[in-house]
Structures are given as C-alpha cells and as structure tokens.
Amino acid sequence: MKDIIRFGLILMIVSVVAASALAAVYAVTNPRIQAQKQAQLQAALTAALPGSTSEGMQPVSEGGEVLYYQARDSQDSTRLLGYAVIARGVGYSSTIESIIGVDSSGKIIGMKVLSQAETPGLGTKVQEIKYGEKDPWFSRQFIGRPASQVAVDKDGGEIKAITGATISSRAVARSINAAYGELTKRIGQQTTQEQ
Amino acid sequence: MSLWKEFSKGLYEQNPVFKQALGCCPTLAVSSTVSNGIGMGLAATFVLVCSNLLISMLRKGVPAKIRIPIYIVVIATFVTIIDLAMAGFTPDLYARLGIFVPLIVVNCIILGRAEAYAGKNKVLPSMIDGLGMGIGFTLALLVLGAIREVIGNGTFLGIPVFGVDFEPVMVFALPPGAFIIIGFILGFIAWLEKKRSQKTAGK
Predict the structure, then answer these.
(1) A154-186 pLDDT, tens per residue?
(2) What is the dihedral sign for C-alpha A44, B34, B178, B83?
C-alpha cells in the first residue's frame, strides 16, 4: 500500500515535469511554427499562380474558413490573374491534397501536390521529381488544361496515369474537377452578392 | 569495457537490426530509398544518444518497479521536444526529417537501450552506447535502402543507375520486398556466424 502511494507520487512528479517542459517548449516554438506554415502556404500559392505576388493575393473566406484565393496581376492591379484553390481527393491510402491555380477561363496555370501518404514507390510518385528535373512530372501534365475536364488516360483523358498507381492519379484529377466545380459556384455567388 | 568497444559493438556484434532484431518496424517501413534510410538513421541516432544520456542521469532516482512507464514518459517527452524544436528552428531540416521524428517514439531500440544499458551504466558509456547503436541502425537502413532502391526503383540516392530500358522490380520498393531482403541478410549473417564458430571450434 505504501509502495503504491510512493510510486504514484514519483510518476506524478515525472509527468508534471514532462508536461511543464512540453508546455514551455510549445510556447516558444509555436509562433515560429505558425510563421513557417504561413510561409509554406505562400510558397504554394506562388507555385499555383505564377506571376503573382503576395500583396496581390487575397483570400476569400466564409465563416473563418478560406474558400479560395484571388490574385491580381502584379503590374496591373485591376487585372484579375486568376484563382487558387485547394483540392482534396481520397487516393489509395490517404487524402491527397494539392493546390491549383486557374485563370478566368478555367485553364490550369499552376499546380502542386501539397501532401499525401500514398504507397511508397507507387502513389508517392504524384510528387516525384525525376533526376535532373526541377518540378514533378506528374503535376506538370495538368498545366494548360481546362480544370473542369482533366482526367487520366484510363478515363479517356490526357493525363498519363502513374504506372501501378491509377487510383492515386485518378484521385488527383477528380479532386481538381471537384474543386474547380466548387470554385465556379462560389465565384458565381460572390458576384451576385456584390451586385 | 573500453569506450571504443561500447561504441563498436552496435555496428556489428550487437547490431540492433541484424543481431538484436529490434526496430524492425521502422527498418522495413522507411528503407525504401537510401536517403530515407539516412534521414531516419540520423534522427534516431540523435534521439538515442540524448535519451540514453537522460535515462542514465535519472537511473539512481528511478524505482525498478516503475522504470518502464518513466522511461516511456521521458522518451516521448524528449522526442516531442525535438519535433517541436526542429519544426520551429530548423524548418529545412524538418522538411526532410520531420516525418521520421514521431516514428522514433515507437522505435523499440530507444526503449531497448534504456532498459538494457543506460538504466544500469554511467552517463558517458551510455551516450557512446547510444551513438554506436544509432550508427549500427543507420548502417542497417543504408544496406537495406541501397538494395531496395537499386532493384525497386533503378536509382541510387535518386540518380538512375541503369539505362532507360531497366524496368524496376516494384515489389522491392514495397513492404514485402523489405521482408524478403531482410530475410536474406539475416540468413547470410547466420551463415557467416556458423562458419566462424566452426573455424574457432576446429582450432
């Protein structure tokens, strides 16, 4: 009985010290981590909308949640450069998240897979950068195509699916279709509200 | 035992993966490429040295009956602190190694060395032990990663090693391939050991 109380107390002290240490480290690192995340988002937005600057980028949100980003030309601020939106699709073993940038006609001008946890060596190739190249070959295929119609070759589209990872490839293409559909609906709402 | 021996036993004699069969889960999971293996190995080595240091410092105050929960709290806290510190202060390093750090909490080499060594030995030998075990773990990942990346992906450190006609054997990039290769390696080591003991017996 005495042992239980003694051991319980020791465990309590260890846990309190551990929790305080964690809290202190968290308090110090959290603002920095948030700043890193912001910088990452900015880099993703720049990748999706080439030619835009952070000043010209404007988040459009509803209820505290950012729905899409609107970008204006860095030279001519009255000209609309395009929109950026996050696309999410369920792949083989994870949700694949990517960001796409479209111009006002709905053509994809930039695209980047942000996160995924697909099968190593197969589905992970949605982010693969081949040796000697600068950008992932899979996402490069999407640029210049209409966001509403992109589809992998097995579905009759023009995107070459990754060998052995059709499900992952298809998830990316379909998530883009869906995200673009959602985007056009939102933009429609926004303009009617403004009028 | 000399410090050099404390260090070198982790490389082969008591290699955590090949001899003690510890840490097989991360070994099989992240050895698909050489760079993954190096990343995981270095992150684990760092945690191992520091956790051995802490456990060794605490060893006199920890009652034997509740040492395991205390080790687990200490190791988990420590790994989380490293995770947060890396994310906050070294974002580039975190981008490369970040995914491995949470995996280290469940790496049984860490708890294994705390239990088998650091809980009973002085601070300096414990750190050396952690360093040797960590490098032994890294070597194991490197061997496995090199075989798997070359056969399963046709590249070494991301650089193609075969001509364009080479069709990678996909299974080696996947978990079953890791099991097959580690099986062959363990078999080979057992065979070596057998030959070695036969030689000494014959003398």
Answers:
(1) 898 889 999 889 999 999 999 999 999 999 988
(2) negative
